[in-house]
């Protein structure tokens, strides 16, 4: 019996129709799927799905641009963000100098820039402000380790205390954005440094004062019960003699933030940038007035670097030593059988004279010392002359003689052994024993 060919006909027809539909679909690329009109549970409106080539930004401060005028994201970081915090700060500084308010608003974002701040920024820009040259932009340090940092813009031609803009940046998903901007106080308001808000700002202002050898100003930011005047003066001397300055990148690094305490690591480097060193600061927030104060300065690492670079590797040849009666003492060193001061000693005494002249009520005790070579009688006279030569220099520098007490102690209080354990001569030990110690008895 012959089979019917009808089923094969219908199968062929179906295949042809399917092929035609596929061709039509390929040739019509502009047709998009119908939008999903289903609402999520809870009544919240769903966010539109970003198109190809766009990056969805979640949890970021929005700029002041309205949605209709905001620039399209082309796949790179948005204008209010940057992978490099320095680059973002420099763009803000440039816009401020150019008076470009629209760019400033876009870079800062709505969350960081309120209405009052925006008006004041407009006034600053309209006044034609310029940044201080050559270091008008600097990194202050970290607020939180690797996640929040502070930068400072220093304005030119404005009186001190009213010429700094602070920018607090935070890092989100690898991008830096402005979290907060602090403008200088307005005319008639107290200077910006009069009432410091947080531990980082206090640590920075304290170190800037030390770098400028401004002992009296630096002293106002420490707890006098735990940080001696000699420690502050010693830090001034270390910065001066070692020619240290704060490192440009991450000068202050956050070690811990556990209110009411905070700790920072200060990164410094030599003037030529070839050697770096560190020391730590601990700050405490006083319950009485809520002000942050420096409560501890650990100079061990800085003193070790100083000894290597300045004192020929002798860690005992230090400008800051422990006093047997407690506290810290400044030490000046002399050559063998000498009672003359070298140029380095004179620089150190210039700092001490500034401290004493600032307050005529302060007194110091100068104790002269020798090594063990020579008779007791000779060493007693030599130690007295070493104390007297320091007193005479300070008096010539304008310090009242009534502020100074001198005493010669001969070889009775060595800092290091004059001989080794085997009884041999110890030249390095003797070198550190030839000194005058300055006890700041304030």
Task: Give a verbal description of the structure.
With 442 residues, this protein is an alpha+beta fold. The chain has three domains: 78-192, Nuclear Transport Factor 2, Chain: A, CATH 3.10.450; 196-312, Nuclear Transport Factor 2, Chain: A, CATH 3.10.450; 316-441, 60s Ribosomal Protein L30, Chain: A, CATH 3.30.1330. It contains eleven helices and 15 strands. It has helices spanning 6-26, 85-98, 101-108, 115-126, 199-211, 215-219, 229-242, 300-309, 343-358, 376-396, 427-433; strands at residues 81-82, 137-144, 148-154, 164-172, 175-182, 244-246, 252-258, 261-270, 276-285, 292-298, 320-322, 328-333, 363-369, 404-408, 435-441. It is elongated, with a radius of gyration of 34 Å. The model is unreliable at 22-79 (pLDDT under 50).
């Amino acid at each position: 019996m012959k089979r019917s060919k009808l089923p094969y006909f219908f199968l062929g027809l179906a295949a042809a129709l399917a092929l035609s539909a596929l061709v039509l679909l390929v040739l019509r690329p502009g047709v998009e799927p119908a939008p999903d009109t289903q609402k999520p549970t809870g009544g919240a409106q769903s966010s539109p799905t970003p198109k190809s080539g766009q990056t969805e930004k979640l949890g970021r401060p929005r700029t002041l641009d309205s949605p209709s005028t905001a620039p399209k994201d082309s796949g790179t970081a948005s204008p209010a963000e940057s992978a490099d915090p320095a680059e973002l700060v420099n763009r803000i500084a440039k816009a401020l100098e150019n008076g470009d308010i629209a760019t400033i608003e876009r870079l800062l974002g709505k969350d960081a820039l309120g209405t009052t701040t925006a008006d004041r920024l407009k006034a600053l820009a309209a006044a034609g402000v310029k940044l201080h040259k050559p270091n008008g932009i600097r990194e202050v340090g970290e607020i939180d380790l690797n996640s929040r940092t502070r930068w400072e813009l220093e304005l030119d031609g404005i009186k001190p205390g009213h010429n700094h803009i602070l920018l607090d940046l935070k890092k989100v998903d690898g991008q830096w954005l402005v979290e907060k901007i602090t403008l200088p106080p307005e005319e008639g308001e107290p200077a910006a440094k009069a009432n410091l808000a947080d531990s980082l700002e206090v640590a920075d202002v304290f170190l800037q004062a030390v770098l400028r050898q401004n002992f009296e100003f630096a002293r106002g930011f420490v707890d006098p019960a735990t940080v001696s005047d000699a420690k502050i003066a010693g830090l001034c001397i270390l910065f001066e003699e070692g020619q240290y300055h704060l490192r440009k990148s991450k000068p202050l690094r956050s070690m811990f933030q556990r209110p009411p305490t905070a700790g920072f690591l200060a990164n410094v480097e030599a003037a030529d940038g070839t050697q770096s060193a560190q020391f730590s600061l601990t700050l405490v927030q006083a319950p009485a007035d809520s002000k942050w104060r420096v409560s501890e300065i650990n100079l061990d690492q800085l003193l070790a670097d100083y000894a290597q670079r300045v004192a020929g590797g002798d860690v005992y040849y230090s400008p800051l030593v422990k006093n047997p009666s407690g506290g810290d003492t400044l030490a000046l060193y002399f050559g063998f059988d000498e009672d003359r001061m070298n140029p380095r000693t004179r620089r150190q005494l210039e700092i001490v004279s500034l401290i004493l002249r600032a307050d005529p009520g302060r007194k110091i005790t100068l104790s002269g010392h020798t090594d063990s070579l020579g008779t007791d009688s000779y060493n007693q006279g030599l130690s007295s002359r070493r104390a007297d030569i320091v007193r005479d220099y300070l008096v010539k520098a304008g310090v009242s003689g009534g502020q100074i007490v001198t005493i010669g102690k001969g070889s009775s209080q060595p800092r290091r052994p004059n001989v080794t354990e085997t009884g041999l001569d110890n030249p390095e030990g003797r070198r550190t024993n030839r000194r005058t110690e300055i006890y700041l008895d304030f």
